[in-house]
Amino acid sequence: MSERLGAEEWATYWQKGTITTFHGRFAGNYDGAVREYWQGLFSALPAGAAILDLATGNGALALLAQQHSAREGLGHKVTGIDYADIDPPKQFSGKAFARHLRAIDFRGRARLEDTGLDTASFDLAISQFGFEYGEPEAAAREVARVLKPKVSTFAAMLHHAESAIIRQAKDGLAQIAACVKSGLSGAVRDLHKHLDRLATRGEDPAQDSRAIDLRANINRILAELQQEGGRYADPNQLVFYVENSMSTFNPQVTAGKPLADKLAMLQHVTAETDAYRQRMRDLISSALTDPDIEAMKRRIQSHGFTTEEDRPFVFEGTHFCHLLRFSR
Questions:
Q1: I want to staple 259 with a disulfide (CB 3.0 to 4.6 A). Which of 20, 49, 196, 293 is the partner?
Q2: Measured distance CA(47)–CA(49) in Å, rounded
Q3: What is the pTM of this model?
Q4: Cβ–Cβ under 8 Å, residues 54 and 143
Q5: Three-state SS at 77
Q6: Would you call 143 helix, strand, or coil by DSSP?
């Protein structure tokens, strides 16, 4: 299986209603030092400037740009492109910030390497965890083409192979591997099927040796997974897998539901786990090493750009990503 997600898979992800790819912190949008950095770039632009957000997803960075423009009365023209089929104004129609999304020119099914946008039409191109997903040579040519030949800027926050985000992604994959290896899903499924047979025959599961053995097996697996979770500072993927699998036994969740519905809930946990695993593989495969970053700099400089910033971006004491900024 390819490590990279296709446009349809990303479209499905964005339809789940997250504005960034983060849950918890940044679930509502980027804040703190990340937002402050981008706002600094927006403030440096003249009134009426054109801003392009590359690989915009559900428009997190484009939204920051549009909100800043509206707040400061700058009249910036914001465009967001993504190769997935996106529609952020529709996705977030009930949110207070929806009016800002409606002011952005979103273009789905537009590739980084071939945006379809006019040549020399933007003052600033930006990307938050997106540019590194493109084909390097073609993406560099395209950003150089759409930016104005004089007094334009390109800035990107990029996944770095040694960043905290990549370490967390690797931890998440390890947790999922442990869950799958544990056999919890199969054990839960077997017990549900056996309990359904007992209910059909009107037999008491508390007195059934097979039901007792199946429960004991699940308890053994849960104890092992609890011990496994202690290895991680944030065992969130393991907790998700266990809690959602075991919720199929919760009468407040499944009371009155037939066996087929309970098994469908269990299958949904598996599907969500598989989707998460593929996203993390995609993320890890996009991360850049120091030599990769040097190669990216050379490509962009070959189009007449000068490197203005090239540094690890530290967020709340951790290596969050790598920052590159160019001007010409």
A1: 196
A2: 6
A3: 0.89
A4: yes
A5: strand
A6: helix
For 154-169, give the DSSP string: EEEEE-BTTSHHHHHH
Count the neighbouring beta carbons within 10 Å of the beta carbon of residue 317.
7
Give the pLDDT confidence of 258-286 residue by residue, as tens digits: 999 999 999 999 999 999 999 999 999 99
Closest CA to 126 of 109, 104, 95, 96: 104
How far is Cα 112 from Cα 314, in angstroms, rounded to an integer?
A: 26
Pull the structure tokens for residue 62.
């484009």
Q: Can you list the domains of the chain with their CATH numbers?
A: 7-163+287-327 (3.40.50.150), 165-283 (no CATH)
CB atoms closer than 10 angstroms to residue 312: 13
Tokens of 79: 């465009």
pLDDT by residue (tens digit) across 105-127?
999 999 999 999 999 999 999 99
Q: DSSP readout, 200-225?
A: HHT--GGG-HHHHHHHHHHHHHHHHH
Closest among 277, 203, 273 to 241, alpha carbons compared = 273
- Which tokens sit at 61? 């960075």
